[in-house]
Write a structure and sequence with these properties.
- The protein is an alpha+beta fold.
- The chain has 3 domains: 287 residues, no CATH class; 114 residues, no CATH class; 59 residues, Arc Repressor Mutant, subunit A (Orthogonal Bundle), CATH 1.10.10.410.
- It is 39% helix and 20% strand.
- The strands form 4 sheets. The protein has an 8-stranded mixed β-sheet.
- Helix 3 links the parallel strand 11 and strand 12.
- Heterotrimer of A, B and C subunits.
- It catalyses: L-glutamyl-tRNA(Gln) + L-glutamine + ATP + H2O = L-glutaminyl-tRNA(Gln) + L-glutamate + ADP + phosphate + H(+); L-aspartyl-tRNA(Asn) + L-glutamine + ATP + H2O = L-asparaginyl-tRNA(Asn) + L-glutamate + ADP + phosphate + 2 H(+).
């Protein structure tokens, strides 16, 4: 039997506010345990939650970015469950009436000829508070509770079960990760827990419309682990069913050391949480003027910027897509062009040498040792014929390691291109005189002989001759 995997994601996005969602306590990461746990987060008797307006603006921003419905009226509810890191005994969340309704995102999966686009539908995005954190092993035989994170604002983004492979799920998660950083609502730091994904996985016979029983893989904070977890879970479910077993709905954890998932507990249904509207919080009302004010503060979105790059700079669709994969990359490219670089050359360098170096050193583009202005100065020297493309690569390497700016490196390494036509003509004459056999081969119709002669001329000039001039002068002399 052929099987089909069905995947949906729930992503907890920590909102980039200075204070918590229902109190004025700080959300700064890395403080000593329990130093940011205020009386509101701890549910002391008599305290009342007050909604953080910035968290609401973040939710509206996200809704606008994915063309979603933004509810004029949404309601906060109490999600009741017992856990040591949940001091109130309930989490304030949204259930029946979320702030953001149906929307969608278009993802690109794969690369090259096998690449394809797919629309992933977003069911909802709702505001809620985070719980605290259980710390195991801080003291031998004991666990501790750190409530600094309790009350931190989250936007939980839920998709339809639209993904059909681990590759699609990872492509969606990466696109969402880039988007929330692009619009400035989340710092995207997965190691600190700012962006965490729960992945619902089920399998069904190919062609069936009925969904299989799902298992939820909790708190994945790495795209690599997400890929591994989905692939393992899919194989496990298929093997279980083919061996005559059944899948029990459950919450599972992924162990990156073994590459396996294991059941943690049976999966709760919504009614297990006994949701009811929080009596301490009024319904959240969002007016058209509220939405308009947030819209006016929105940055240009990736899709719009991609279309502009194609129209304004004449970039190919693939190049425009790559350059708008993150806000940092797009800003770096635009700054390079604004500093006087040719747009297509800037695109090639940003997607090529710059990206390769950053990937090799596991750096963000904001940490590039070559600024956009410095890269533009290098590209200008290619444009005006001062250096060849090969010499430019040497200059780039030296700039990356901090040896100086483009002009000083060109001067110190003697990389300036020879563009004097008289000097190049003399080199070409010497090459023709020394390679009579190649000249005869060219005249007999062998085009490869021409390339060989160009190579000899470049070698004779120690790579400094302007290749375009070498080609032009050589062609004139051979055809004259």
């Amino acid at each position: 039997m052929e099987w089909e995997v069905v995947i949906g994601l729930e992503t907890h996005t920590q909102l980039q506010t200075k204070t918590k969602i229902f109190s004025g306590a700080s959300t700064a990461f890395g403080s000593e345990p329990n130093t940011q746990a205020c009386v509101v987060s701890l549910a002391f008797p008599g305290v009342l939650p007050v909604l953080n307006q910035e968290a609401v603006k973040c939710a509206i921003k996200f809704g606008l970015a994915v063309n979603a419905e933004i509810a004029p009226r949404s309601v906060f509810a109490r999600k009741n469950y017992f856990y040591p890191d949940l001091p109130k005994g309930y989490q304030i969340s949204q259930y029946e009436l979320p702030v953001v309704g149906k929307g969608s995102m278009t993802i690109q999966v794969g690369s090259g000829d096998k690449a394809y686009e797919k629309v992933i539908n977003i069911t909802r995005a709702h505001l809620e508070e985070d719980a605290g954190k259980s710390v195991h092993g801080a003291q031998e035989g004991m666990s501790g509770i750190d409530l600094n994170r309790a009350g931190t604002p989250l936007l939980e983004i839920v998709t339809e079960p639209d993904m059909r492979s681990a590759a699609e799920a990872v492509a969606y998660a990466k696109k969402l990760h880039d988007l929330v950083q692009w619009i400035g609502i989340c710092d995207g730091n997965m190691q600190e827990g700012s962006f965490r994904c729960d992945v619902n996985v089920s399998v069904r016979p190919k062609g069936s419309e009925k969904l299989g029983t799902r298992r939820e893989i909790k708190n994945l904070n790495s795209f690599k682990f997400m890929q591994q977890a989905i692939e393992y879970e899919t194989s496990w479910q298929i093997e279980t069913l083919e061996d005559g077993g059944t899948i029990q709905q459950a919450t599972v954890l992924f162990n990156p050391d073994t590459g396996e998932t294991r059941a943690m507990r049976s999966k709760e249904e919504a009614n297990d949480y006994r949701y009811f509207p929080d009596p301490d919080l009024l319904p959240l009302a969002i007016s058209e003027s509220d939405i308009s004010a947030v819209k006016a503060d929105m940055p240009e979105l990736p899709e719009a910027m991609k279309a502009r790059f194609e129209a304004q700079f004449g970039l190919a669709h693939y190049d425009a897509n790559a350059l708008t994969s993150s806000r940092g990359t797009a800003d770096y490219f635009v700054a390079t062009v604004d500093a006087g670089s040719d747009a297509k050359l800037a695109a090639n360098w940003v997607m090529g040498s710059v990206s390769a170096k950053l990937n090799a050193e596991d750096k963000e583009i904001s940490a590039s040792p070559i600024s956009p202005r410095a890269l533009a100065s290098l590209i200008k020297r290619i444009q005006d014929g001062t250096i060849s493309n090969n010499a430019a690569k040497q200059v780039f390497e030296a700039m990356w390691t901090g040896e100086g700016d483009a002009d000083s490196i060109i001067e110190s390494k003697g990389l300036k291109q020879v563009s004097d036509s008289g000097a190049i003509e003399a080199i070409v004459d010497e090459v023709l005189a020394a390679n009579a056999a190649m000249v005869e081969e060219f005249k007999a119709g062998k085009e490869k002989a021409f390339n060989a002669l160009v190579g000899q001329a470049m070698k004779a000039s120690k790579g400094k001759a302007n290749p375009a001039q070498v080609n032009e002068i050589l062609k004139k002399k051979l055809e004259g």
